[in-house]
Structure formats: C-alpha cells, structure tokens
Write a structure and sequence with these properties.
By secondary structure, the chain is α+β, with helices and mostly antiparallel strands. The chain folds into three domains: 41 residues; 42 residues, HU Protein, Chain A (Irregular), CATH 4.10.520; 39 residues, no CATH class. Strands 1-2-5 form a three-stranded antiparallel beta sheet. The longest helix is centred in the N-terminal third of the chain and has 20 residues. It is extended. The N and C termini lie far apart (47 Å).
Length: 143
C-alpha cells in the first residue's frame, strides 16, 4: 500500500499530480505511470459508455443513470419554456472508507466557510473570491 500523501490545500489534484506522486513513491518512470492511469481511465469510460457500473472497492461506485426530462427557462426570455430532454449522466457514490475520511473534514470546512461568509457580510472584498471558490461560483461580487 502506498503511503498517504497530502497535497496543497485548495488546489485541484490533477492527473499530472497523480503521475508525479506515484512515480516518486514507486520509482516507476512517469511515462509508464501515465500510461497505466490513462488506460485505467479509458477502461472506466468504456465500461460506463457501454452501460456497466464501475465498482472500486473502498473507493466508490460510478454508475450511469437517466435523468428525467424537465421544463427549464431561459433567463433572457423567461416567458418561453424549454423542454430539457432526459439524458444519461454519470453518478458517483463514495465508498465507506472515502465517506469516513471526507467526513473528518466537516468541522474544518464549516469553520472556514463561516469565517469567510462573515467577512463577506462585513464587506471585505479580499475574501470574496475565496468564498466564491468555496461555493464553486464565479467571482461575480468583485465585478
């Protein structure tokens, strides 16, 4: 089993990061690690595209589900309803170990979000982009 590695906070973990970390920890050259990771992702994509679920023990399950069709509205033309058709999407359900490890972050994230929103209410613009990042929203407050 590989040692647990920590990555910088608030940055996305990229495929390149994985390749470099696995290469460093195992001694396998990066090109070979990249090939294995890419083949793994291709196999997952192929399985999902063919309608199969992908179950990775202690990690989670990827499954294809059909969304219901629904009525939407264009904000620029709210008087006109648009039918959004049903479509297949990939859903991920975290495994038990992942759920438990992520759950440990609840308190830390709650405190951080609370302090950022408190700063927003006080009108401190320097923290607004951080709050938007936490929400996954564009930084529209600084426009």
């Amino acid at each position: 089993m590989l040692p647990r590695t920590t990555f910088p906070a608030m940055s996305n973990l990229t495929k390149r990061d994985l390749v470099m970390q696995i290469s460093k920890e195992t001694g396998i050259i990066q090109a070979e690690v990249f090939a294995v990771i890419q083949q793994t992702l291709d196999a997952i994509t192929t399985a999902l595209a063919s309608g199969r679920d992908v179950e990775l023990r202690n990690f989670g399950v990827f499954e294809v589900r059909l969304t219901k069709s629904r009525v939407g509205r264009n904000p620029k033309k709210p008087e006109k309803d648009v039918t959004i058709p049903a479509r297949a999407t990939v859903k991920f359900k975290a495994g038990k170990i992942m759920r438990q490890r992520v759950l440990l972050r609840t308190q830390a994230l709650s405190k951080k979000q609370a302090s950022i929103y408190e700063a927003m209410l006080d009108g401190r613009p320097a923290l607004l982009s951080v709050a938007a990042e936490l929400d996954g929203m564009p930084d529209r407050w600084n426009q």
